[in-house]
Amino acid sequence: MSTTISESAVSEVAVRSVLASGQRPQAPAPGQAVRTFAWRAVLKIKHVPMQLFDVTAFPIMFTLLFTYLFGGALAGSPREYLQFLMPGIIVMNVVMITMYTGMALNTDISKGIFDRFRSLPIWRPAVLVGMLVTDTARYTVAIAVMLTLGTVLGFRPGGGPFGVLAAVALLLVFCFCLSWAWTVLGIKAQTPESVMQMSMTVLFPLTFASNVFVDPATMPGWVQAIVKVNPITHLADSSRALMHGEPVGSSVLWVLAWGAFLLVVFAPMTMRAYNRER
Amino acid sequence: MTDLAIETHALVKRFGSTTAVAGVDLQVRTGTVYGVLGPNGAGKTTTIRMLATLLTPTAGTARVLGHDVVTEAPAVRSRVSLTGKLASVDDELTGRENLVLLGRLLGFSHRQATHRADELLDAFGLGEAATRDVRDYSGGMRRRLDIAASIIVTPDLLFLDEPTTGLDPRSRNQVWDIVRALVAGGTTVLLTTQYLEEADQLADRIAIIDHGRVIAEGTRAELKGSVGNGAVRVRLADPTRRPEAERQLALISGSEVLLEPDPAVLAVRVPDADRAGALVVDLAATGVAIEGFGFGQATLDEVFLALTGHPAEDTTDPTDPSDPNDPIDPNDPSDPAVPNDSSIPTEPVGTAPQEDVA
Q1: Is A80 contained in some domain?
Q2: Closest to A119 (Cβ–Cβ): which among B53, B124, B137?
Q3: Can you give the residue range of the structural domain that contains A226?
Q4: Structure pTM?
Q5: Residue A9 lies in a domain
Q6: A94/A100 Cα distance (integer angstroms)
Q7: Backbone φ/ψ region at B63: left (φ over 0), alpha (ψ -120 to 50), beta
Q8: Is A25 in contact with B108 (Cβ distance < 8 A)?
Q9: Which residues in chain A (100-129) have CB-CB distances under 8 A to chain B?
């Protein structure tokens, strides 16, 4: 691509003439501000489609790898295993993807555009909420990709479309809440790399020390104790139960409680950090 | 309502144990350009960020357009714009998308925002680049887009944080033209810069800031006058004869002779141009071959050096003599870098040597 762009001269008369027409409109309602920030995120995806790599390629890779590597050994056949794995691997993948929220935010801040946003007379959380709304859309893409692949490979959820949708909705709600933890990091950390390192350090043990891949029954007692309280376990349990149309028990409540906890702790923390400075 | 756009009292900002701003008092009159001049790390950006409500002061007060920056931050935000040091535009978006986005955030409908964006892009010479990604823009184009973004709604007060740092001379002049047009349109501008040239060109009043404190404040003329007399500078045909010329000049003038970094140049402070002329004539009479000479009031460089003991600019010097568009104004009699003899290369002789410090 050529990087030369023709530019015309700046005339003082022209600059003065555009000044006169600057009439200040009413400050936008929070909804419009959020929508505008969501639109910004969509524009960025349009200009840099590679951003969608993490919500397409990785989910596909993970699903295929785990299904065919472990399927035979763990459940007799990949197809058998898929019925158990699919709800959990969706949970794991989407929860992993949430960390990009913090990285994107950190990159934005380091570029200086956030100073402009922060000096605008808008509802202050709009920047972050707009970003999280678009991220939720990205998570939905990842889920759709994985469900499509799963169906092709032989995943047959007994709970039907409504069960699947309920599981997806629960997952999205949880991820929206969890993302606020990464926005705190995104604002406070010095570089996008450190955001990634820190979130990986949390996310890897969190997603693996769960019942996503196997039944925890064979794990040592202390590991079982960890797995049992892990919100990802509750999320995978809920997801499985909803998708297969089985009784959900208390797992959904646990997931919602965890989500509320994360939101209540990290959203105010994010806003404090955001309103303060770097 | 006073006619002060900005009024600060003992403004302080500390980051941990570091004091970035150590008690700044500023009064900026409405409708003027106010220059805050200082080297990197002097506290300019911190000050501007406090005034733009991006940072909370540790101590002191600041009122912007009559509103307190802490307790009435939203009122301040609705009337000011900030063009930060880092270009505050989205690289991945096109120029038009950037402006439409901000127009929407200011409350315009999509149609109004698009109309306004196109109007601004045309006025700022970016009409043809409107649909190109900003990452393909040159530094000057990006900076103009940045300023355009700041005046989507014409602000009452515009903060420009080092608006021309890193720009080539042509782009810098374009930015200066824009600033002048804005001020002519009634906007008050607070500008930070580490370039004395820029403050000299644009600012009605200048505050010189160093280590978080205002060390001098006034109009350009007041500041230049504050270091006292002008200086006559003499360039010798033969640099090896400078010691001899120094001796002679000291005898004739009866005051201290300053040796410039340039081995062929020496200078001496004199009260007026008549005395300067006589000095040069006397020096030539001693038989020292003179290639050229100049006389002028102190430059802001000298003011800065006299006040702080170190030069204002770091290595990124926009007045690089190798630059064909060197912004030395040949018609400016106050610029001692302008030699009376055209054979003298227009080097920034105005950059006084360290010994000059009182």
Answers
A1: yes
A2: B53
A3: 29-275
A4: 0.75
A5: no
A6: 11
A7: beta
A8: yes
A9: 111-122
